[in-house]
Structure formats: structure tokens, C-alpha cells
């Protein structure tokens, strides 16, 4: 009788634990936020520019420029018209509910070398 109770307790404990394990496996890990950039980083050469639609393409990604997007060129404020085909860009974007990639920041041009490397 004691063996039956022990076996029943073991089976009951296993049945209680199984849904918790299955739930843990079904829950996706939260996406990592890139806190330094305020979004997901991107970089590359501009393939296309649509000034009317306020978008540009880097690789396979079409990035939207919004009123909140901070655009810089050579460390100074810039605008959508400063983004040209073939220009190197970098920055970050956030994906909205519709799946659009909205730029948080766009840096036009190559990064300048530090003063130390220019002196050498």
C-alpha cells in the first residue's frame, strides 16, 4: 500500500510540473534592446532613396525617416536630402506594430578617424 501511495504521489507531482515546463518552452525570449542606440543598429551603403516617401534602402531593409528621426552628417544636423544613393550610412531603427522600420537616428557618411590616428 505504501508503494502505491508513493507511486501515486510521484505521478501526481510529474503531472503538475509538466504544464509549467511546457509553458516555459513556449514563451519566447524577450528581444534585446540596444540601449546605446535606442533601437536596432544598421549600417551600409544607400541603395535607393525615396524623398517623397521619406524612405531609403540599405541592403534588404527599407528604413522610414520620421519627424522624430535625428539625422546628422559630419557631426552636424542634416536632413533627408543629405541621404544619397551610394552614401555610407549608419544608425538605428525601431520596428512598429505594422512592421515598418522607423529610423531613430541616421549618420550620413563615414566615421571620422580619431585625432590620434591622424597625427601618426
Notes on the protein architecture:
There is one protein chain. By secondary structure, the protein is α+β, with helices and mostly antiparallel strands. It has a domain at 40-108: OB fold (Dihydrolipoamide Acetyltransferase, E2P), CATH 2.40.50. Helix content is 25%, strand content 34%. It is built from two helices and seven strands, in the order αβββββββα. It has helices at 2-26, 115-119, and strands at residues 40-50, 55-58, 61-64, 70-73, 76-77, 88-95, 101-108. A five-stranded mixed barrel has the order 1-2-3-7-6. The radius of gyration is 26 Å and the shape is rod-shaped. 10% of the residues are buried. The model is unreliable at 21-35 (pLDDT under 50).
Map the helices and strands.
Elements: H1 2-26, E1 40-50, E2 55-58, E3 61-64, E4 70-73, E5 76-77, E6 88-95, E7 101-108, H2 115-119
Parallel strand pairs: 3-7, 4-7
Antiparallel strand pairs: 1-2, 1-6, 2-3, 4-5, 6-7
What is the element string, with H for helices and E for strands?
HEEEEEEEH
| CATH second-level architecture of the domain at 40-108 | Beta Barrel
**Mean pLDDT metric:** 79
Helicity level = 25-40%
**Poorly predicted residue ranges:** 21-35
Number of helices: 2
The CATH class of the domain at 40-108 is identified as Mainly Beta
Structural class by secondary-structure content = alpha+beta
- The radius of gyration is 26 Å
> Would you give the CATH topology of the domain at 40-108?
OB fold (Dihydrolipoamide Acetyltransferase, E2P)
Overall 3D form = rod-shaped
DSSP, total strands: 7
Biggest beta-sheet profile: 5 strands, mixed, barrel
Percent range for β-strand residues: 25-35%
Q: Assign the CATH superfamily of the domain at 40-108.
A: Copper binding periplasmic protein CusF
Give the neighbour order of strands across the main sheet. Answer: 1-2-3-7-6
Straight-line N-to-C gap: 86 Å
